[in-house]
Amino acid sequence: MLGDESSSLLNKSFHDLTSDSTIEDFCIGTGHTIFEATLLPAILSAQYEIVLATCFWAPGPTLESLNLALKQLSTRVIASSSQRKIKVNICLSSRSLFQKLFHTASKHGYTYPPDSWKSKLGLPSPEKIPGLQLTIKSLFFRPFSVLHSKYLIIDRRDVWLPSCNVSWEEWYECCVHLRGQVVNHVFAFWLDVWSSPDEAFDTVPQTSSTSDIPLQATYPEPHSSHKTSFTTSPIIPTTLLPHPHNASIRHSLWFLPPRLTPPPQTPLNTTLLHLFNHAQKSITILTPNFTSPPVYIALLTAISRGVNIHLITNRRMMILEQLLTSGSITERWLWRLKRAYKGLLLPRQQQSPSNEASALESARPGIGSLRIDIFSPPTGTSGAASAQVTREDLEAGLVGQAAAAAATTKVHIKLTMIDDEIVVLGSGNMDRASWYTSQELGVMLRGGDVVRRMWSDVQAGLEGCLERYV
């Protein structure tokens, strides 16, 4: 049975969660560079309210930059002699193993007292940010129900959906900036999950666009990031795909037979399965891990009816987490997928074991192709790649995408593209945790030109960083 979080959104129909929204920009890079290029300037532009939700929270450059931004924002408020503080809500789920083991089971979570902000979270103490009304809360449901969604809402007017956390991780990430009715849907999702009955939320006046508000402090565009701004702000059909956490022990026990544990029927799960089942030409997936049985079955089914599959993932990423939540690891599932694909090809091609490589290169009539790439950036580039790039090169758009991936160690982007026309972004991985137990939030964007432009940015960053598996 599904948890009761985001129940009001889940009661909405698929049509109710779809609206025409505008895409403002799309950014790729590391978590730190995305924060400095996109998210922190947005925070500094806030006039009334900030909502920042993240899964993992850990010390590192990103947290240091966020700390500085909150102080600068407070200074701006005080300097303006405003009688109104800016409300800042920070929401997190995973901080340490100890925190998760002893976390309260209350659905209202744990609110951090002000005297712990600095010592436990690395944030400014209250006297350092007098212009802000800061609330920090955590939610986690044992044994495995982490709140994995990540988003930033500014003044209930703009929303950013990054793939990255507030952490030290140097991974290849992305972030999409949207405006329109989808912002109200994300805010409603946040209220359903994070608000308490005794909390009151005032209406927020309609402000000018954040892009029209001068920033009091700016961050240089990092060399290891690349941002595509959609100057015409294309209007595209946008569907929010909430996925509540599932604390059911039935879904938490990975060793139960798959037929006994179908995935929860959430908007994110059902939409992805629908897209897989109705893809006509191609399915492209970027995912940190690949351990979801429903996805494995759906991809094989799609291949058998002629759809071409391209899967990009990692080796040796979060091994312990994979074992705890799925009882297996990505490498095992990739081997199974390769073996099953070979089985689809061999009956007609009559390939012998010695000809396995040629069998996998071309599918028999009616069978789609399978390509699996492992993210493997050149050795020695991580962290320092951007130092060799000049400002002029970046502004000319010559190296931003390539440097963005070369400065990372793993791919953490969660992207599913169908027929080059539809893309699903957000926090959900193609692993068992995201499909069964974790809370996730995705968004489906429909529009060939926009989708292909976003994929072009991601693909350019992947150049030279992929190792062919199949």
What does this molecule look like?
With 470 residues, this protein is an alpha+beta fold. The chain folds into two domains: 23-198 and 209-236, Endonuclease, Chain A (2-Layer Sandwich); 239-468, Endonuclease Chain A (Endonuclease, Chain A, 2-Layer Sandwich), CATH 3.30.870. The chain has helices at residues 7-10, 31-44, 61-79, 97-101, 117-121, 181-194, 249-252, 267-278, 293-304, 319-326, 330-349, 356-361, 391-395, 400-406, 432-437, 448-462; strands at residues 18-29, 49-53, 86-92, 110-111, 132-138, 140-141, 145-146, 151-154, 158-162, 171-180, 225-229, 235-243, 282-286, 308-313, 370-375, 410-411, 415-418, 422-426, 440-446, 466-468. The strands form two sheets. It has an 18-stranded mixed sheet that branches. Helix 2 packs parallel to helix 3 (61-79).
